[in-house]
Design goal:
3 strands; about 350 residues
Length: about 350
């Protein structure tokens, strides 16, 4: 088992130092395929309990989408490859081993895409990869259960199913507010929430308020303004030294500081505008969900205006992600901390 959080990302750096022939070794494949199974995260107080309860008390189909999303690093780095089967899709529904993951012939790839668009199945290659992930996760959790309950045989299928113990809650946890970092970390081991609009709304509004507070602090607090400008100045591309060890002749001049301040102010207001748009649209999406109630999925199709609202929300989120990526690309190379870590 990998020792640290996000073994898939750590493996990207390690694999750069290995010959090409080492890429297909099983241990590397598992790190991209099962990033949630690592010692650092599962050593946290609740995560293994959450993992065992969610997977043991729910059908595998509930985790199909989240399991596939968890391997995006392996897919984008091409260390994981999707198999292509023409005119065939896989149905990931139910919890019966005889029917879960059954193949369905569609005739052509166009027919497959129409069926997938109607939420009736998934591409065969994606389905096989999802089932591989789920098989290895269940094998891992069964092995954990055997080690914990080493004096109780688990092979007897006639043993009665024990009642659900309920949500895993630690002492004094109900009175504590979970941080966003904790919620993100635990989400890999919980049942994926479906249309949890209150949770989405609270997150989006919190981010919007965070940027709004930052704007007010920049206006009213000179110390905060100075510290923020200094932080942005440290991540300007002019800070990157040349091959000869020199620095940009623009560094520290009046025009350079003006560009730095302008970039900082633009970024803060742009971020607030982005999250303000997101908060308004999430509010609209929440209203639509409450309006339709259980009729969103009438006749196995999503209501058109709700579907359009979800598509527009996805567009807004993509734009926000693009902005964050550009911010990281522009600032990471000049980071002294990152430079010291990479060297």
């Amino acid at each position: 088992m990998p020792r640290y959080h996000r073994p898939d990302i750590a493996s990207l750096h390690q694999l750069k130092k290995l010959p090409q022939t080492k890429f297909k070794i099983g241990k590397w494949n598992n790190r991209f395929l099962l990033p949630s199974i690592n010692l650092e995260d599962l050593s946290k107080t609740k995560n293994l309990l959450l993992f065992m309860r969610s997977r043991g008390r729910n059908s595998s189909g509930l985790f199909a989408t989240s399991d596939f999303k968890s391997i995006h690093v392996g897919l984008h780095s091409t260390h994981l490859v999707l198999a292509h089967v023409t005119g065939t899709m896989i149905i990931l529904e139910g919890n019966d081993p005889s029917t879960y993951g059954r193949l369905h012939k569609c005739g052509s790839d166009n027919d497959v895409f129409e069926e997938i668009a109607a939420n009736r199945g998934t591409v065969a290659g994606v389905g096989v990869l999802i089932m591989t992930i789920q098989e290895r996760i269940l094998d891992f959790l069964r092995h954990c259960a055997e080690l914990i309950l080493h004096d109780i045989p688990l092979e007897n299928s006639s043993d009665p199913l024990q009642p659900d113990p309920g949500e895993v809650v630690l002492a004094n946890e109900e009175t504590q507010h979970l941080s966003l970092q904790t919620e993100i970390l635990e989400s890999a081991y919980r049942v994926p929430p479906r249309h949890d609009m209150s949770r989405l709304r609270s997150f989006v509004f919190a981010k919007r308020d965070e940027y709004q507070d930052d704007i007010w602090n920049l206006r009213e607090d000179p110390i905060h303004f100075t510290d923020t400008i200094q932080e942005w100045a440290e991540h300007r591309p002019e800070q990157v030294r040349t091959a000869n060890g020199g620095v940009s002749p623009q560094l520290g001049k009046k025009e350079w500081w003006e560009r730095t301040i302008n970039t900082m102010v633009t970024e803060v207001y742009s971020s607030f505008h982005t999250w303000n748009l997101l908060s308004k649209h999430v509010e609209k999406l929440s209203w639509l969900k409450d309006t339709y109630g259980d009729h969103i999925y009438d006749n196995e199709t999503i209501a058109n205006d709700f579907d359009d609202a979800v598509d527009y929300l996805e567009f807004l989120v993509d734009q926000a992600i693009i902005g964050l990526i550009m911010k990281w690309k522009n600032g990471l190379g000049a980071s002294h901390s990152f430079e010291n870590t990479s060297s």
